[in-house]
Amino acid sequence: xxxxxxxxxxxxxxxxxxxxxxxxxxxxxxxxxxxxxxxxxxxxxxxxxxxxxxxxxxxxxxxxxxxxxxxxxxxxxxxxxxxxxxxxxxxxxxxxxxxxxxxxxxxxxxxxxxxxxxxxxxxxxxxxxxxxxxxxxxxxxxxxxxxxxxxxxxxxxxxxxxxxxxxxxxxxxxxxxxxxxxxxxxxxxxxxxxxxxxxxxxxx
Length: 204
Hints:
Protein name: Phenylacetic acid degradation protein PaaY
InterPro entries: Hexapep, PaaY, Transf_Hexapept/Carb_Anhydrase, Trimer_LpxA-like_sf
Helix content: 10-25%
CATH class of the domain at 3-143: Mainly Beta
Number of strands: 20
CATH superfamily of the domain at 3-143: Hexapeptide repeat proteins
């Protein structure tokens, strides 16, 4: 993976974490156990510290950064969707940040809260636990159901499993020129989205 030291500080990646070779880690970045960091994610710890606690996932094209002296933190089982931007903020345990959302400085996302896709969480906003926030700027929409939180947890476990799958089986290859007969599919069932009726995992 592209890992860069700056001013004598280099990233730390736990052996059970998977960081894709096309992600970029710079400086004061700490990736905990069982994390998954997807292709083209940029974790830039050249001003403040970036911390991923155990079991987090940070998906494709996400950006994490912060001002000098700050920590940008995703707590245990945090789930950061494709293209999200986290800047000097704190994402609580088991929270979900949806695709394309932006979380600004000193904002705090509560435990098991959901930030909707495309939402803008303003500087200093405190999102309570177990609620859905949406909009630009983000506002509390409603409390989450137990079904929705359980769905999120299943999706996060899929990414924890993906870290293991990637560590053990991901490798460069040449593409086939034709589709094989009876081409198999991945066996990832049971992830229908209870919020939107989709057939895939967390929109994040």
